[in-house]
Amino acid sequence: MSAVRLAVPDEVMRRIRAHGVDTYPHECCGALLGRDGDGRREVIELVPLANHRDDSPRNRFEVMADDVRLAEKMAHEKRLELVGWYHSHPDSPARPSEYDRDHAWPWYSYVIVSVQKGVACDVTSWRLQEDRARYEREEIETVAHPVGI
Predict the structure, then answer these.
(1) Most Cβ neighbours (<10 Å): which of 18, 37, 44, 99?
(2) Are 9 and 41 in contact (CB under 8 A)?
(3) Distance between CA atoms of 122 and 115, rounded to whole angstroms?
(4) Interatomic CA distance for residues 101 and 108, integer angstroms
């Protein structure tokens, strides 16, 4: 897997952080819409989603099939791609867990925001290798405005 940068507009990053704070102490989740190519992936918009995990929303999130269809439909309408997913880790580091790895798909970017005691802290991005053995960290490049617009 080649090193790929994830360009994220300041406003989108602000919204990811805010979603994590708003849902604290539970995990938030959502989809990332954008473009992929030329060694650089760019996020242009996000689709906040409900965490459907009833049994342990403090340390797990669940995205339903309808959520995936909604994200794909919105991406198509905006002439974008579904390039990844984001979620929060309440009172935990912004690193993927084994549970995250077991439920992730290769190719997508996975942005994680650590929310410590209700305050958004570190934000990281990861990609699962094709063999699903481990994640590789993506460098996040915060940009003033969406690059592709």
Answers:
(1) 44
(2) no
(3) 8
(4) 12
Domains along the chain with CATH numbers: 5-143 (3.40.140.10)
Token duo for residue 90: 């309440």
Q: Which of 132, 65, 60, 142 is nearest to 99 (CA)?
A: 60
- Say which DSSP state 109 is in: E
Give dist(CA 54, CA 143) in Å, integer. 35
* Model confidence, pTM: 0.92
Q: What is the DSSP string of 11-50?
A: HHHHHHHHHHHHHTTSPPEEEEEEEEETTEEEEEEEEEE-
> What is the per-residue pLDDT for 148?
52
3-state secondary structure of 122: strand
pLDDT per residue as tens digits for the range 72-107: 999 999 999 999 999 999 999 999 999 999 999 999
